[in-house]
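Hi Y.,

Following your request, here is the sequence exactly as I used it, all 304 residues.
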Amino acid sequence: MMKKFFVGVLLSAFLVSPAVAAKDTKANPAVLTFKNKKGETITYYRSDVLQYKQTLPEEIRFAADEAVFSDVRDQMLLDLLFADAIEVEHLENDPEVLSELKAAKVEIMKKVWMKRQLNKMVKDEDLVRSYNKVKESLVGKKVYNTAIIVMDDEDKAQELLKQIQAGADFGELARKHSIEANTKDRSGEIGFLPEEHLARLIDQDAPKKIKISKDGVCTNRVYKKDGKSILIKRLGMKDAEVPEYKQVEQQLRALEMQKAVGTLAKDLLKKKKDNITVKDYNGAADSPLKKAFEAMAEGLAAAG
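Below is the corresponding structure, written out as tokens. Let me know if you'd prefer a different format.
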């Protein structure tokens, strides 16, 4: 299930830099122009928005570009607005800011060190190997375009299901009743996703029902996910498209970096194991980083 963008979480420091040589063309139009208080004009192109999309949670990354384009662009605009407002406050020498900067210095050094270590570990041949696995996994695979209605109340969701089965318009009900902000204005449409992503976003059983449903038909049950009730309708199906290497290079690099983080952490832990003791809540001996490594493994399994 898609999550809302969290205002201010992704600040302007994480925005993609506009391509220096980019021009406003039909293939890559300018989609956001912002003049800041310094009088500088910042222009973002379609390619910038799509690049930024790849830094967002997977339900956004894997959604159809057109389906979430306006949401991603607007998040970029929010970041620019915040950055512009901060600029005029002249907080450079503010005591609170200086205190925060001192604390952040260690985190920045850690981030730079980590980046350098991971860049040494992740090679181009690793990316090519991962890309070849992706290509093999997409052979003969189908992707499904679906729409959802998300509600807090299961009884109301069951009532909507009855209305849909009686002929009510799914999209109209989604716009009126769904609490999922990123899809309701598009009549609930998520975009094309493979079965495994639908299983994680909605329910393990959902892809099975979607596969046997006809286009335009709502599945005959209410799904439960994280306390929410979800109705789902199949909109279409097509063969999965094999992306060009350049299109997914950054995603592949991020995945390999995630693997490398686990390897790096294990190596560091092995070197210091005789100098580390950890205990659980009750004071019993525990394994250091056990849950962290398990979470990494689960994340990699989901991404792969």
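The first strand starts at residue 30 and ends at 35.

Thanks again,
Q.
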